[in-house]
């Protein structure tokens, strides 16, 4: 079932405000550099809701399309 959930998420369009934020920061810091794409959650480090190590981190991602593809993951 988790594979199906991931497929559904990958098919969803990234919200325009997220695309705009990524594009803005890439234009500011440079589209040609390698970046890390990782999860972030408001409850990520709470003592009763620890999710450490359960999300993926993608390293050395270069270019707007590649970054947005990994954001979707």
Structure write-up:
One of its GO terms (molecular function) is ATP binding. This protein is α+β, with helices and mostly antiparallel strands. It has one domain. Helix content is 45%, strand content 21%. It is built from three helices and four strands; from the N terminus they run ααββββα. The strands form two sheets. It has a two-stranded antiparallel ribbon with strand order 1-4. The protein has a two-stranded antiparallel ribbon with strand order 2-3. The two termini are 16 Å apart. The mean pLDDT is 87.
Describe the structure in brief.
Helices cover 45% and strands 21% of the residues. It has 73 residues and is of the alpha+beta class. The protein has one domain.
Outline type: globular
N to C succession of SSEs: HHEEEEH
Please indicate the percent range of residues in DSSP E strands (runs of 2 or more).
15-25%
Number of strands: 4
Helix content: 40-55%
Biggest pleated-sheet summary? 2 strands, antiparallel
Catalytic activity: pyruvate + ATP + H2O = phosphoenolpyruvate + AMP + phosphate + 2 H(+)
Enzyme class: transferase
EC number: 2.7.9.2
Protein name: Phosphoenolpyruvate synthase
Keywords for this structure?
73 residues, two-stranded antiparallel ribbon, 45% helix, globular
């Amino acid at each position: 079932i988790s594979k199906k959930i991931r497929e559904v998420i990958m098919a969803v369009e990234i919200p325009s405000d997220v695309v705009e934020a990524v594009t803005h920061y890439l234009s500011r810091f440079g589209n040609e550099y390698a970046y890390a794409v990782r999860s972030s959650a408001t409850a990520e480090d709470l003592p009763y809701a620890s999710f450490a190590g359960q999300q993926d981190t993608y390293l050395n991602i270069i270019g707007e399309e590649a970054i947005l593809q990994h954001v979707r993951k």
